Structure prediction request, 456 residues.
Amino acid sequence: MLLKLLQNLADIRHPLRPPGAVSEQEFNEKCIRCRKCEAVCPYDAIQMTDFSWSSKTGTPIITPREIPCYLCDDLPCIEVCPTEALAPVKDRAEIAMGIARIDESLCFAYNGILCRACYERCPVYGEAITLKEELYPVVHEDKCVGCGICEAVCPVTPVAIIVESAHQVNS
Amino acid sequence: MKNWFLTRSKAFRRTSQILSLLFLMAMPFLNQQGFDWFVGTLYSIDILGWTIADPAMILQLILLGQPLLWTLVLAVSVPIILALIFGRMFCSWMCPYNFLAELLYKLRRFVFPRKFNRNKNPARNPHWVILGSIFLLIVVTGVPLIVFLSMPGLMTAEMTDLVFGGSLGLELILVASVLFLDTFLYKRVWCKYLCPVGLTLSLFKTPWTLSLISQSTTCAYCDSAKDHTCNQACPLDLNPRISKNLYPSCYNCLDCVNSCHEHGGALDVSIGWPHKIKNTNKEIG
Prediction:
């Protein structure tokens, strides 16, 4: 009981996982820290969590502001995963790594400066992010795959659009 | 053929250890250049498209309540078959941690020469209690402990992280402290008693698995004023002439057999049908 509580406290943070990742607790049990996803990622988007993540140390994490996931056609990270911690997906639209959230107080578009960076670069073009009144970007959670390209291209500092793990949003 | 191999086994073993270490260190750099025939770490590695996984990691995965996929059965089949035939030869012939620990221990012996006639097999074998406790702790806490207890896994993983992430993790402190423990505090305690990776491989030892045998009748008791050559050769300070409690501490490096060949050849290996009659050396030596 106490152990479970401690464990939940330790695992409360949800890193943004690569495409196909199963739910967070299952992921931590299935991932055998083999680093193959890190080694095959052609963009070096997949990095490993450091020791500050306690029992999640050495599991894959994507930091979109540095390098987002570019959603490769063949998804080598999923292919190379030996334990299906990254489970196969049928096509790119099925990926649900995370969900982007816009902070309207920071976003240029909502503050009178013309900016369409996230809208223009979204790989699920015209579906995951649309423009309200042709000016204001709006995220559609059912279409957003969570790749983080919007977060990478956002010109505002601190960033006005942030991708959170889909499993964090759902839990 | 057997003798041809055994008289050269030490040179083969060192070559194997060095090649294994160089291979594991070069692999992430090659991966970075787009060469992907070999990908992974010693937790799990892909060799020419065939996935191999550490049986201890997969056992942990099952104990944490995850289903055993048939791909994982295939992945552990190679190490398990090798362990069934050769015992823990992975540890002595390939494991980069053991290589490092062996070298450091040699250095220690150089600085502080050891006392002779001190090699002893353990009085009793605590191995299964230790392995059982580790796995029990994993089940109770739900923390995948083998990740942090697999020294070869940590070392190769940090190598990969260094190449792809540009930084080393604090996990290396774990490796360094175990290395310190192994070299200075309790001589080779990690490889002999504690390493869950090696202990899991020991689970697959059968009477047909490669093992040492000794014949008291032909033992030349070489140089016994100082020490037996086999004892001097043993990197784990075991006494290979005594079969009692030699396993599962012994990891079949075969250095003792190699050294014995110049002194009468009382030590030999048994593989296949067990040599029950020959293995008679039980007296204290």
Q: What stands out?
A: The longest strand of chain A covers residues 98-102. The interface with chain B takes residues 3-4, 7, 26, 28-30, 32-36, 38-40, 44, 47-48, 50-51, 55, 57-58, 80, 82-84 of chain A (CB under 8 Å). The radius of gyration of chain A is 17 Å.
